[in-house]
Amino acid sequence: MTTEAPEKKEEQKKEESFLGLFVHNLWSANTVTVTILSIFLALLIGAILIVVSDSAVLSTFSYFTARPSDALNASWDLISRAYADLFKGAIFDPAAVQAWFNGTGDWKTALNPLSETLTYAAPLVFTGLSVALAFRGGLFNIGGQGQAVIGCLTAGVAGFAIGLPAGLHLVVALAAGLIGGALWGFVPGLLKARTGAHEVITTIMLNYTATLFLGWLILQSGVQDPDRTDAVSKTIESTAGLPALPQPLRVHLGIVLAVIVTAGVAWLVNRSSFGFELRAVGANPPAAKTAGMSVGGTYIKLMVVAGGLAGLGGAVQVLGTADRLTGQVAGNIGFDGLLVALLGRNKPWGTLFAAILYGGLRAGGNLMQVDVGVSLELVTVLQALIVIFIAAPALVKTIFQLRDARTARLGASMAKGW
Amino acid sequence: MSRVSTATVEDLTEATAPDRFWNRQRRLGVALVLIGLIAAVIFGSLAESATARFTISEDAEGAALSINGQFGAILFGIVAVAAGGALLAGVAKRWQTLLLCLGIVAFVLSFLCWQVAGKFLPLVDTISGSLELALPLILGALAGVLCERSGVVNVAIEGQFLMGAFGAALVGTLATSVWAGLISAVVGGVIIASLLAVLAIRFLVDQVVVGIVLNLLALGVTGFLYERLMQPDALKYNSPPRLPEWRIPGLADIPVIGPVLFESNLLVWLALALVVVIHLGLTRTRWGLRTRAVGEHPTAADTVGIRVRGLRYMNVLLGGVVAGAGGAYFTLVSTGAFNKNMTAGAGFIALAALIFGRWTPYGALGAALFFGFAQKLANYLSAVGSPVPNQFLNMLPYIATIIAVAGLVGRVRAPAADGVPYVKS
Questions:
Q1: Which residue from A57, A102, B310, B350 has the highest number of Cβ atoms inside 10 Å of its Cβ?
Q2: What keywords appear on the UniProt entry (chain A) (predicted)?
Q3: pTM
């Protein structure tokens, strides 16, 4: 890839046509190019990891100088199968789609990959929006995980402890998750506004506090499943579950809710007076103060809203797919939400697309693990690598010799240091 | 604190206000009186009126310090109340820290008397267990001290632990040598540290973001290689030798302290020695002065000719060495095999110890020992079937840190340039 840069430069000199101009701008450090190249670099490093961890392929490298084709073919075969599975598991499997058109297959099988992608994406949208919104107000909400855990907990408890008619029960359970998360976000907001305690420190500490609290609560009588001895809660009533498509498709109403909430957050940030306030506070707190805004008040409101969003993400997770509380019910959705927000450049719609991308990686990773035996953990590596490259556009620019472009520097609105 | 936190004017007025009646000492006093009352009334009434034995030996037999549990709980509760009362009455400022420590220790003792009443608590086992659990926290927090005193926020301690633990298990097994394992643990820590350094110092990425992402990267890479290599063939890749326990003859025969300190492994001595070395280094050497200068005011340091970025690179990498050694604890000392996400948040407790210890080596040691003790106590309580849930004791490090940064019990202050990348103008 690195050798292509000078070629493109020469092309551009020859003709100033539309195409030339397009290519010229394409190969500059703009947001889209950097994002795509970041994903490419992450996949490249992932491929290396796949090869070096496979002893069968690795053994062909021992006689690389004698017959390099063996090693290269084996590596290529393994990598292409793994990444093909990633695609098939996330978007569609051509074989299944063809079978559907021929009438031999089921539409459910053909749509299953997309359903899985959206299922994994739904909670990430909420936690991602939580982080992105806080960023815009100059706060770094690392507490998405803790807020999501508390959201899971309150939504889950509301899901099995109270009996209500279908529909209303779902609304109550979702509201419970929202309120739980909002409360967990209120604490760091209040501490930040009143004492100046840095939200990064307090939210990190509250993450683990929430997880431990969940671990304790599950074991209490009234919460724990009476038929089980391990840490598993009662099953959530079906009246509180998010409606889903027919089995085996798992995608549920959560993703629709996610799109609506994304639109809501986009409106909140860009159009509402609170959004103006939070952007002002995020850009320059002393100036916002001088303009008559209450900086502390904004911090508190912002953390409450951010916490509520993450709590809603936890609620969607538990009411949509998990259907009961366990110690790991929230998985890693809070920290993944952080990555999603960074990949989405802290913009609401960007966050939505980033969450769908990460959901796709996760869904494809499942197929890859079953089919080729490449561990699902590779997806975690890919997700982290993508964000590392996104966060360091200068690194990508250096590697690919990109031209300068006006890139919105990531982290311009972030809190610096403690 | 950083620019962001001092942005609110309420804060500034509070700092400059003249002596108010409810100053820090009186607020501390009230807090101590309250926890003392809780101890005396609640612990005292719940405690059995039976002997609580704190045995010197490993089991219930032998010499022991014993006290009636109920009496002890009430007595130590009253001691805490008295310490709080003295603070409220307004004693000289130099007694403040001493009285605060006394009050907290009395509270802990009252709690212990309640829990141990009718049972026994092996002292040596408790203290050496606390020290062992504190070991990675000490090393992790020291890594944090090295990074953050020079102005680079290190949230990636968890990732450094994981890479260290993984490297130790993998290379230790392949080379069947515990020392090779220890060295590769250090290498694992340095790998993450160098990524942190390059991204934070050279590419100016937000340091908290880098730290969090590197944690996930380490989690992913170690988990991936664990599932691909170690899980299918644990004998070949995941059975490292353990760090040997050494006994120093003579010194090890001292009661209580002997078995704790002088019948131990190299890592414990290394950690304790590093605390002293880093403290002396920071306060007495040229390197230390420069580190502190770079962490507090990099522009000024640059003006007098200190290479800000170079020093930061060096300190972050040194931090990686220390944290990597801390990671070795998990595989070479504690369990003897690597497991996915085996550090389970220890890196963040180390971060808490760093902050709770006010970014100083001795403070970090004290905080780490305190947190280690809380963990050991949690294990003990769940072993004896105490009604106190161990999850709440495990929350203690996190909640204590929140209280510390919120300034409810004295405010902690980070190095002024901590987390602010330095761009030469």
A1: B350
A2: Cell membrane, Membrane, Transmembrane, Transmembrane helix
A3: 0.86
